[in-house]
Write a structure and sequence with these properties.
This protein is about 30% helix and about 20% strand. It has about 525 residues and is of the alpha+beta class. It has one domain (about 1-105, about 150-533). Strands 1, 2, 3, 4, 5, 16, 17, 18, 19 and 20 form a 10-stranded mixed sheet that branches. It starts with a helix and ends with a helix.
């Protein structure tokens, strides 16, 4: 089937879906947002203090593929301003060294540079970056600065703007077996920080390890999320990670939202088979890729409005809207590591950012999913009371630099046929028009009143353009565009791994009919029979 035929089928599907549903969010252009803005999440970036160890985990434990053509290093004045503008402005106002605010000197004359790798999963990419000593052949190795290390000891996921990544475990996998294998394989590779919380009360690491092997994860048997299993854990360098296994009612409801938007996932591909990278790793690689990028907010509706109306996502419908989430098992699963820290430090859990959503506690958790073409952005709110009208529980750290170890950002893809500077201008205008200019602003080029961006003209990232901004709660967000060489590399990497993406016709299973059976089940009608062969 030609690319033109693909697009004809997709447009026809969109017109039919618009007529047959009353959902506002059907996206009949194949891309989200007003004016053709971003619709696809390009990658999630994680800052690490040991790039090699992180790469080992995401490839040899989770089964991703290192896209070696994208292995990169860069530095420069524009990168310095774009990546750290908020901190640089603060440093200038206070008259302090930016390094004291967690800013590595990656200027053209600086001591450090960004080193990074891309790891491909089924429906998205994890970018790993480390701020390392700048390599200079004119400088002896003995004079090189050490790798930049800015660590935050407060690890609670309830801190404002705290990020996490959630991976999607395959339906037919025993969730408890998966957790056990994840921990065992990580430990065998020397990645001893990988520890999954348990949904029961423990008071030591020994007790955590002794929890019955059939109760390692948490599964909801009833309620709005019936069929969902989840687990929270720290990654190889302490980053916050999560697991979802999605079955039954929750799978059906989520599949409905995916199909209404035209979003894609190997979880809903009719002829899905594991690739060789997963087979080589084994059980811990049995994933459908990424489920979510999560970020903690201090205003749930403002954040939803930002991701849906400014950036082009669709709000996932009820019942998949987390409301008044509480319970002892949820409390332990979300915060067990921090509860153990509080015992060790002899402080109140609240003092290190732990929200008490236990049965005896007086707080609640609410969250929403904003669906892009390949997975969701989850925004979470903790309330210091049992109703949403109570004050929010908003603990904060006193820094914002993305160079802090285990910080993250989500990068949204701008289509390659659009003018990147124009898209920044449109976004800036829309943010101001919708009252976001007090909370969200695209980072600027110094002395220029416009959104800043950088296009790589050489090296592994040649053809890629990026810009940085702060989200409504201070989270890091990027816009990226792949053109030329970088676009070709991206397509090759996706095809090599067998990944799905709306960025290319030959990586989009909706256009080839490979999600037709699943969507017929979720939506209740057969798109193919209406369109014709």
């Amino acid at each position: 089937m030609s690319c033109t035929r693909y697009m004809n089928v997709f447009v026809t599907w969109c017109l039919l879906t618009s007529l047959m549903t009353s959902v506002r969010s059907v996206n009949c252009t194949g891309h989200g947002g007003s004016n053709g803005g971003p619709s696809n999440i390009a990658f999630i970036s994680i800052t690490t203090d040991d790039l090699d160890a992180s790469l080992k985990f995401y490839t040899q434990v989770l089964g991703g593929m290192q896209a070696k053509e994208f292995s990169f290093r860069y530095h420069g004045n524009t990168h310095y301003e774009l990546m750290f503008q908020r901190e640089l402005l603060e440093a200038r106002e206070k008259g302090v060294d930016p390094g004291t605010l967690g800013v590595p000197d990656i200027r053209s004359s600086g001591t450090h540079e960004v080193r990074g790798e891309m790891v491909v999963f089924d429906n998205g990419i994890i970018q790993l970056i480390q701020f390392v000593p700048r390599y200079d052949i004119a400088r002896p190795s003995s004079s090189l600065s050490p790798a930049f290390q800015a660590h935050e000891t407060r690890t609670s996921p309830a801190y404002i703007a705290a990020p996490h990544v959630c991976f999607w475990v395959q339906d037919d996998v025993d969730f408890n077996d998966y957790i056990r294998q994840l921990e065992n394989r990580s430990a065998n590779l020397g990645l001893t920080q990988v520890k999954v919380n348990r949904p029961v009360e423990v008071h030591s690491e020994a007790q955590r390890q002794a929890v019955d092997k059939n109760h390692l994860g948490l599964t909801f048997e009833t309620g709005d999320f019936a069929g969902l299993s989840f687990a929270y854990f720290k990654g190889p360098r302490g980053e916050q990670l999560e697991l979802y296994r999605i079955r039954n009612q929750t799978r059906h409801n989520l599949g409905r939202d995916f199909c209404k938007r035209g979003a894609i996932s190997t979880a809903f591909v009719d002829d899905y088979q594991d690739n060789q990278w997963k087979k080589d790793v084994g059980l811990s690689a049995k994933l459908f890729g990424l489920m979510q990028f999560g970020t903690r907010t201090d205003d749930l509706w403002r954040s939803v409005n930002f991701y849906v109306n400014m950036l082009g996502a669709d709000l996932v419908e009820r019942p998949l809207q987390g409301t008044n989430i509480r319970g002892d098992n949820v409390q332990y699963m979300l915060f067990q590591k921090e509860l153990l820290d509080a015992e060790h430090l002899r402080v109140r859990p609240r003092d290190i950012g732990v929200a008490d959503i236990s049965n005896r506690g007086n707080m609640r958790l609410d969250h929403r999913f904003s669906l892009f073409d390949n997975f969701v952005v989850e925004t979470l709110l903790y309330t210091d009371g049992r109703t949403l009208g109570e004050p929010a529980f908003n603990p904060r750290v006193n820094h914002s630099s993305l160079a802090y170890i285990n910080d993250m950002y989500v990068a949204l893809m701008v289509r390659d046929d659009l003018d990147f500077p124009t898209q920044l201008e449109i976004l800036d205008r829309d943010l101001a028009k919708n009252g976001f200019d007090k909370h969200v602003r695209v980072n600027r080029i110094p002395d220029e009143n416009r959104g800043g961006y950088y296009t790589f003209s050489q090296g592994p990232l040649s053809g890629m353009t990026y810009s940085m901004l702060s989200g409504p709660a201070g989270e890091h967000v990027a816009l990226v565009q792949f053109r030329g060489v970088s676009r070709d590399k991206l397509r090759r990497a996706l095809l090599q791994y067998g990944a799905v993406s709306s960025a290319f016709a030959d990586t989009n299973p909706r256009l080839s009919g490979r999600m037709a059976k699943s969507c017929r089940q979720f939506l209740g009608y057969d798109i193919d029979s209406l369109i014709g062969k």
